[in-house]
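User: Can you model how 1-O-phosphono-beta-D-fructofuranose sits in this protein?
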Amino acid sequence: MLYTLTLNPSIDYIMHISNVKVGETNYADKEKMLPGGKGINVSRVLNRLGVTNKALGFIGGHSGHFIEEWLTNEGAKHEFIKVNGDTRINVKLKDEAETELNGKGPIITEKESEALLNQILKLTSADTIILSGSKSRGLSETFYNEIIDICQKQQINFVIDTNSKELLDILKAKPFLVKPNQAELSQLFNQPIQSKTDAIYYGKKLQEGGAQNVIVSLGGDGAIFIDDQETYIAASPRGKVINTVGSGDSMIAGFMAGIEKGLSKLEAFKLSVQCGSATAFSEDLATKDAILALSNHVEIERVEDNEND
Ligand SMILES: Nc1ncnc2c1ncn2[C@@H]1O[C@H](COP(=O)(O)OP(=O)(O)OP(=O)(O)O)[C@@H](O)[C@H]1O
Ligand SMILES: O=P(O)(O)OC[C@@]1(O)O[C@H](CO)[C@@H](O)[C@@H]1O
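Assistant: Here's the modeled complex, given as C-alpha cells:
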C-alpha cells in the first residue's frame, strides 16, 4: 500500500488580497481554509485518482482536528500521531505574486517521534512511503535518515521530497522518486539553473547519485523526467493560474498513481504534469475531472542522449 508522511502538516489559509500594503491593515477579497502539508496534499490527490493510501504524520490541537475531519469527510485514510502542540497555520497570500507565510508548528517529543517510527517499522517490502516536506521542531536533524534506514532494512520503497541538502546523501539509498523544483535543484548544487539544459544536467546528477526516477518541475515552464534509460521534457499546459500551492505535490501523486495503475513511466510522467497544472488552475487541489480535462494538453519530447552533452 502507499503511505504518505507529513511531519509538519498545516492548515493552509489562502487569502486573496489585491495590492497588499505591508505595515498597514489589509482585508481579504476572498479566503479559504484547506488541509495542507506536502504529504497530505499527495494523499488527497492520490485519493481523487482512486489510489488507496494512508496519510501518516504528527497532528495536534483544533487545527489538527480540522485536517483529520476534512480527510475523513473526503474518504481519505489517515493515522496520525497525536501531539501536544497545535498544528501550524500557513498563510498563502495571493496578490499579483504568491507569498507564503509558513508557521513553525509544534515541538515533537521523543515519545511522539518513537510512536511514528514504530508505525513505519510495521511497513514491508509491499509498501511505498512518500516522505514530503519540512521536519517539525524537536525531531533530530537526521530524522529522515532514520526513516530511510528502516526503509532500507525492510526493503520499503520510498519517495522523498525535501529541499534540504541531506537529499544528496539520501540518494545512495536509491529513492524511487525525487522531485526538486528549479530553485531547490539550484540550492542543492549551489549553481544557477537558467535553462532546461541546466535542469537536465543537474537532474542527471541526482539520477547518477542513486535516484531511480527524477522529475525536475519548472512551474509554468513544464517539467523534466530522467531515469537510467530516458530523458523527457514536458511543456506545461496553458490555463488561468489560480493557486499553485500543492502543484508539486500533485505531480508526485500523479506519477505514483500512474505507476500504481501500471502505466509506463512516460504515461505516469504525463499524468504527473496534468496533475501539477490542474492544481495550479484550481483553488484547492485538482479534482479528477480537472486532471482528465488536461489529457490532450501535455506535450512531451524525448531528449536524445547527445543533445545535452
Ligand atoms: N503557471 C503554471 N502554469 C501551468 N502549470 C503550472 C504552473 N505552475 C505550476 N504548474 C504545474 O505544476 C508543476 C509543479 O510546479 P512547480 O515547479 O512550481 O512545483 P513546486 O515548486 O514543487 O510546487 P509547490 O511547492 O507550489 O507545490 C509544473 O511542472 C506544472 O505542471
Ligand atoms: O514547510 P514545508 O513542509 O516545506 O511546506 C509546507 C507547505 O507550504 O507545502 C505545501 C505545498 O507544497 C502546503 O500545503 C504547505 O503549507
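A couple of observations from the model: Residues 181, 217-220, 222-223, 236, 241, 244-249, 251, 273, 276-277, 280 surround adenosine-5'-triphosphate (ligand 1) (CB under 6 Å). The chain has two domains: 1-162, 177-309.
User: Helpful, thanks.
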